[in-house]
Amino acid sequence: MADMKCGPENCPLTAWTNLSPSERKRERARLAKELYEQGFTMEQIARQFGVTQQQISLDLANLQVACKLKRAKTVSNPKGAGRPG
């Protein structure tokens, strides 16, 4: 699933709605990491999960990957680096 891109037919957030609250808490960090690696900002991810940007930041830090992540290259961010949004 690492190479999967989020789209209308295959977005991991679609499965999110079928999880129990305890399952959501466990899975949020994993899914947030995948979305962040695809170039979504923490703010965008937070809105989708209905939590604060700070919570997503904590989730990523708790996975010990936040400092190692490099934002994906995009048209507006051709180098793929920079501060997380």
Quick summary of this structure?
With 85 residues, this protein is an all-alpha fold. It has helices at 12-16, 21-37, 42-49, 53-62.
How does the SSE layout of this entry go?
Blueprint: H1 12-16, H2 21-37, H3 42-49, H4 53-62
Helix pairs in contact: 2-3, 2-4, 3-4
Question: Could you characterize what this model shows?
Answer:
This protein is mostly helical and 85 residues long. The chain is built from 4 helices and no strands. Helix 2 (21-37) runs antiparallel to helix 3, helix 2 packs across helix 4 and helix 3 packs across helix 4. The longest helix has 17 residues, at 21-37. The radius of gyration is 13 Å and the shape is globular. The mean pLDDT is 75.
Residue-averaged pLDDT: 75
**Largest beta-sheet characterization:** none
User: Number of helix segments?
Assistant: 4
N to C succession of SSEs: HHHH
Count of DSSP E strands? 0
Task: Return Rg in Å.
Answer: 13 Å
The CATH class of one domain turns out to be Mainly Alpha
The span between the termini is 24 Å
**Are there runs of 5+ residues with pLDDT below 50, and where?**
none
> What would the CATH topology of one domain be?
Arc Repressor Mutant, subunit A
How helical, in percent, are the residues?
40-55%
**Gross geometry:** globular
Q: Which structural category fits the helices and strands?
A: mainly alpha
Strand content: under 5%
CATH architecture grouping of one domain: Orthogonal Bundle
Sum up the structure in keywords.
0% strand; mainly alpha; 85 residues; 47% helix; Arc Repressor Mutant, subunit A; 4 helices
